[in-house]
Amino acid sequence: MIIVKNLSLTIKETEILRKINVKFDSGRIHGLIGRNGSGKTMLMKCICGFVKPTDGEIFIDDCKVGKDFDFPPNTGIIIETPGFIPYYSGYKNLTLLAAMNGKINSRQVKTAIQQVGLDPNSKLHVKKYSLGMRQRLGLAQAIMENPDILILDEPMNGLDKDGVGDMRKYLLDLKKRGKTIIIASHSAEDIEILCDTVSEMDKGVLTALSGF
Prior knowledge:
The protein is an alpha/beta fold. About 30% of the residues lie in helices and about 30% in strands. It has a 6-stranded mixed β-sheet with strand order 6-7-8-3-9-10. The protein is globular, with a radius of gyration of 17 Å.
C-alpha cells in the first residue's frame, strides 16, 4: 500500500504539487490523468524517491520514503524515456543492470524480455530499436526482478496497436498476481480498460474521480 499525506512541492517559487492526499491500495491498477505539466510525473518521482517534496510524507507498507529508505525496494519504474547503452543489445543492457543488484540470473532476464514480446537472443543494438521496442525493453527492465510495485509513466508510448494490446494484457495479468500498479496515461481507453481507480492532476492538485 502507498499512502501520500499532505504532499507539496515547490521548485524555484513555482508550486508543482499542492497538498496531495491519496492512498493506492495493493493489488490494483491506479490511473493518473491530466495534461502535460499537471504534476503527474513529478508525483511519481516523489513516490520513487527521485525528488524530495517540500512538505508532506509518503509511506510504502508503513515505511517512509526518504527516511526508512531513499528509494522504495521491490519497485519497477518507467518514468520518461528509458535510457540504455546504445551500442549494446537489449539483453546485454539488462544483464548489466541486473548484475548491480544481484537478485536475478541471466535466465530470468531472458524471460522478462520474452514476456514483453522481444527476442532476448537478438544482437541488434538498442540504438537501432524503434521507440516501441525501447518502451518494451523499459518494461522488461521494470518487471525483471518481479517487483511488488510498478510506477509507469506513459508505458504505451510508441507502441503500435498490437503492442498496446499485449501490454494491456500483461498489466492485467500482473494485477491478478497482486502487483500494485500506478499508471499515467493520456489514453482514455487505456485508463478505462486497465484502471480500478482514477485520479486527475490539474495544476498540482489531485482529485479522485472514481474507485476510491
